[in-house]
Amino acid sequence: SKVDFIAYHPHSTTIDENYWFEIDVQDQSSQSKIYLMTASANNEELGYDKTNTSPISLNFKHQFSKVIINVLKGDGITDLSGLSIQVKGMDHTAIFDLMENVFAGIGHIDGTVITPFNAGNNTYELILPPTEYSDLSNYKVEFTLAGNTYMWVMSDNTGDVSSFESGNKYTFDVT
To answer: What is d(CA 80, CA 143) in angstroms, rounded to the nearest whole number?
Structure first.
C-alpha cells in the first residue's frame, strides 16, 4: 500500500488519535523542546510504496515565531545586571493538526507569565505560536531591575509589527 510521510519536532508520545500535537511554550528554558517544526512528503499526492528507491526529501517548516528582545540601557540606568523579564497576556498554548498541517487552536490562560530565554548580552528570546491579531496591546513585557518595574506594550513598537507569523523572526530593541 502507498504511504505519505509526516515528520515533526520536538518528539512527543502524546499525539492523539486525530494526530493533533499539543504544546505549551510557557517554559522557554529549552527552546529546542518547544520550537515546533513540521515536514511532509506525499510524492506529488501519489504516495510511496516499497518500490520507491529514491531518497524522500523532508523540508521542515518552522511553525512558530521567534521574538528577540535586545534590552538597552536607558537614562539613569548604568548596569543591567539582575534584570528580569516577564511576558504577560501572550498566547502560549497551541494545538497543531499534523495531518492538515495547520493550527487547530491557539490560546492562553489568563494570568500566565512567560519568562523569555536569556541568550546573554541582554538579549532575550521567545518562541511563540503565530498571533493573527491586529492588536498586540494586550501583550506586555515587564522589565524589573533594582526593584523598579518598567513596562513595554508590544504594540508600541517602531516597526509597526501587529502580528507574529509562522516561521518569521522579529527583533525589538527596547530601552
So the answer is: 10
pTM (2 d.p.): 0.88
Question: Could you tell me the end-to-end alpha-carbon distance of the chain, in angstroms, rounded to an integer?
Answer: 59
> Across the strands, what pairs with 9?
37
Helices and strands in the chain, H and E counts: 0, 14
Q: Which residues, other chains included, contact 19 with Cβ-Cβ below 8 Å and sequence gap of 6+? A: 6, 97, 98, 99
- pLDDT, one tens digit per residue, over 5-42 is 999 999 887 788 899 999 999 999 999 999 999 999 99
C-alpha cell at 103: 493550527
CB 158 within 8 A of CB 56: no
Contacts of 172 (CB under 8 A, 6+ apart): 67, 68, 69, 70, 154, 157, 159, 161
Distance CA 71, CA 19 (A): 39
Question: Residue-wise over 135-150: b if at least 16 C-beta within 10 A, else e?
Answer: ebeebbbebebeeeee
**Mean pLDDT along residues 151-163:** 87
- In this structure, how many other beta carbons lie within 10 angstroms of the beta carbon of residue 97? 14
Model pLDDT for residues 121-137, shown as the tens digit of each residue: 999 999 999 986 656 67
CA gyration radius, the chain? 19
